[in-house]
Amino acid sequence: MAAGLTSTLASISAPALSQTANAMMLSNKDARAALNAAKAKQSSQDFEQVFVNQMFQHMFNGVGEGPFSGGPGAHVWRSFLTDEYSKSFVKKGGIGIAAVVERELLAQQEVR
Predict the structure, then answer these.
(1) Cβ atoms of 89 and 54 closer than 8 Å
(2) Are 99 and 44 in contact (CB under 8 A)?
(3) Are the C-beta atoms of residues 75 and 64 closer than 8 Å to each other?
(4) Ordered alpha helix ranges (H), the chain
(5) CA 22/CA 109 separation, integer angstroms
(6) Contact between 70 and 25 (Cβ < 8 Å)
(7) Please, are residues 50 and 98 in contact by the beta-carbon 8 Å criterion?
(8) Overall pTM surpassing 0.70 (yes/no)
(9) Phi and psi at residue 17, in whole multiples of 5°?
(10) What is the pLDDT of residues 29-51, one digit of tens each?
(11) For residue 85, how far is the Cα from the chain centroid?
(12) Burial class (CB in 10 A: 0-12, 13-18, 19+), 48
């Protein structure tokens, strides 16, 4: 098999080999850029989800006090509720923090 590869490489001219190598490097670079963009998008959405979750937790602090509060265990489940609310909220577009954070993450990656 090595002999076949050697003969194939020998039959390719140097400029064609260079173009092929450049194309492979560019496609690898594009693949890394796409992967970095996907990671930046996910990280920015995760950040916004945590931020929105904190907002919802503060919003629900005073809710549920009184005779119709849901009982003594309601506060235990409230964190799960706010977590699901924030995930849903961000999935539908959020409040715009994710787009700004994503843009800044990508800008920081370009600097490096």
Answers:
(1) no
(2) yes
(3) yes
(4) 2-11, 14-59, 74-91, 97-111
(5) 22
(6) no
(7) no
(8) no
(9) -65, -40
(10) 788 888 888 999 999 999 999 99
(11) 19
(12) buried
